[in-house]
Write a structure and sequence with these properties.
Length: 603
């Protein structure tokens, strides 16, 4: 049957686009190899049902045995329910006929088992050897969670062996802050273990499948069931799992109406145009629509489409397609927070380099200044160091460790100032190791919007870098006054770090940070590729429970020089001159006087 956009749009009546879930009439089981780092590591039995014959399904039990090494039990109960239980007793109650999944304690079921060390999955799974997360502590009783897949026309299935969900939704539901998830290319499953350096990339080989080649070159079109399901999955994920940092154009409409109806809130018919692209049989239009959706609708600095970037770089396997894709997203990219915030960071960085050069450590009076531009780990550098084959790498943790040691050797140094004026964020593992090293704070706190609980991931850090995490690390202490220098360019972890340091006695100088209040988690769709989103399971909070999205306000403001004509109405991206921020003597005096007053008040 010939597929047309008109046919697809005819399926839509407002938010009633989604078809009713169908009963299973049998399925095709297809053993499918799983690859990681270009090597096959497992084989999973994908299922394809008549209701959506091109959409891969997998059992929860089989998936979590693979991802978390969990041995689940599946039991049929009265009333058409199926209970899926972990060894620790946490469980899901699934009703395939209604398409619902219920959990009275979703976070306990979703989280990998502790301790995480050696498992290769979990909230920890840091790529470096200097920290482990031995436990996650939950505060308060969880709110029950029901996922209504039937509302979106997404069928669920069950038999005496397992309960089956679309592979893409299993991947999205059970991913973690270490980015353990899978994607399917039509021929292979790829286990992704992304980090901040590869977060927007697809696994090597993903685009090499015959199906992907045919779709991207136009020799084939997206199947109707894949189009329908991918859109339904996208709506479910954004409706139910988005963290609502309140910084995006569609945030309020999404909360009130759901994604399908919210799209019409974008001006000048833009949302309707994006919906048409998302429902297009053409793979390139679909990828353009997905990218534009996040740039125009959810431009919060964390939420964006990912897979398209592999097709746009210099090594793309499809150079003839790159130009078309670039043209399709160019306007939204130019207007995006990502692009404009990059310009802001580079402006602050240029002002600083003109004053301070490119030093990562400097001293003035009683203050040592440590420059931290990102919280990204130098994975290869740390591996070499711990193997005895290299020096301490100068990433954020290395700068902090060596800087604190150097400052402690100078009796004149009483204050440590972390310079975050051009900080773009990064990895929370690095941030937590730094905070633990400096002030002994070892709990990474977040709020789970789904369960209405605060969560505390406890960290243990190799503070002496001897390769062992033990009681000797608690002997490493630094008796300094701490300060953090911020601008509106300080985003994400650059927003969380000053908050956590302030909770532990630091003074914050500069201007209100640029926000970024949710951890980032990946979403995966049956139509291929995926995206990143500000997630509901780890929204960041200050010690008093306040949201950090609006940025952290400094104790001691420093005015920047504003242009005669403002460059943007958005506080987070408006440009200005930060030259006045980089006076060593001024900063030393401000910090010294602040702590002198604190000491006097405490006397």
């Amino acid at each position: 049957m010939k597929r047309t956009l008109a046919f697809l749009l005819a399926l839509m009546i407002g938010s009633a686009f989604f078809c009713a879930a169908a009963e299973a009439a049998g399925c095709t089981v297809r053993p499918t190899p799983v690859f990681a780092n270009e090597e096959q590591i497992a084989e999973l039995e994908l299922r394809f049902y008549p209701e959506a014959p091109h959409v891969p399904y997998l059992g929860i039990k089989e998936y979590l045995a693979f991802l978390m090494q969990l041995d689940l039990t599946v039991e049929e109960e009265n009333g058409g329910f199926w209970r899926v239980t972990r060894p620790d007793g946490s469980a899901l109650l699934v009703n395939p006929a209604e398409g619902t999944v219920f959990a009275d304690d979703w976070a306990s079921f979703q989280n990998p088992p502790a301790p995480y060390e050696g498992r290769g999955v979990g909230v920890k799974d840091t790529p470096c050897a200097w920290s482990i997360y031995p436990e996650v502590v939950f505060e308060g009783s969880p709110r029950a969670v029901t996922f209504d897949f039937g509302k979106y026309g997404i069928a669920l299935y069950a038999d005496k062996e397992d309960v089956y969900l679309p592979l893409s939704l299993l991947s999205t539901l059970f991913t973690d802050t270490a980015f353990n998830y899978v994607v399917y290319s039509g021929e292979k499953i790829f286990k992704v273990a992304a980090d901040v350096n590869t977060i927007t990339s697809m696994p090597a080989g993903y685009y090499e499948s015959e199906q992907m080649r045919a779709l991207l070159t136009g020799r084939a079109q997206r199947e109707e069931d894949v189009i329908r399901r991918s859109y339904a999955e996208l709506c479910f994920i954004m409706d139910c799992l988005y963290g609502h940092p309140e910084a995006s154009a569609l945030d309020e409409a999404l909360a009130q109406k759901g994604l399908d109806a919210a799209l019409s809130e974008l001006p000048d018919g833009l949302g309707d145009s994006i919906r048409e692209d998302l429902l297009s049989p053409d793979m390139k239009r679909y990828m353009i629509g997905l990218t534009n959706l996040f740039f125009y609708g959810f431009d919060d600095g964390h939420t964006l489409s990912t897979g398209i970037y592999d097709l746009l770089d210099d090594n793309t396997p499809y150079p003839e397609i790159a130009e078309e894709l670039t043209a399709g997203i160019l306007d939204s990219f130019r207007q995006s927070f990502s692009m404009q915030h990059y310009v802001l960071r580079m402006t602050a960085r240029q002002n600083r380099e003109e004053a301070w050069g490119d030093e990562v450590y400097r001293e003035c009076g009683s203050t040592a200044i440590l420059r931290i531009d990102a919280f990204d780990p130098d994975i290869e550098g740390w591996e070499a160091y711990y193997a005895g084959e290299g020096e301490i790498p100068m990433d954020a943790l290395g700068i902090t460790w060596t800087g604190l040691r150097k400052a402690s050797e100078n009796p004149k140094i009483k204050n440590i100032l972390f310079d975050l004026t051009s900080n773009e964020g990064g990895c929370q593992d690095v941030l937590m190791a730094m905070v633990d090293l400096a002030v002994g704070e070892n709990q990474f706190r977040g709020y789970n919007r789904l369960t209405d609980q605060y969560e505390y991931a406890v960290i243990l850090t190799d503070k002496n870098l001897d390769g062992v995490i033990d009681e000797k690390d608690q002997d490493v202490k630094y008796d300094f006054n701490y300060a953090v220098l911020t601008t509106r360019a300080s985003f994400s972890c650059g927003n969380l770090f000053p908050s956590m340091m302030h909770d532990n006695g630091a003074v914050i100088l500069g201007e209100t940070t640029g926000g970024g209040s949710c951890c980032v988690l990946p979403g995966v769709l049956s139509g291929g590729g995926g995206f990143l989103m500000s997630c509901a399971t780890w929204t960041l909070r200050a010690a008093d429970g306040a949201s950090l999205e609006s940025g952290f306000t400094p104790d001691l403001p420093i005015a920047r020089t504003e242009p005669e004509v403002p460059t943007s109405d958005d506080y987070r991206t408006s440009l200005g001159d930060y030259t006045d921020y980089f006076s060593d003597e001024m900063l030393d005096q401000m910090i010294t006087e602040w702590f002198a007053e604190v000491e006097a008040l405490a006397a």
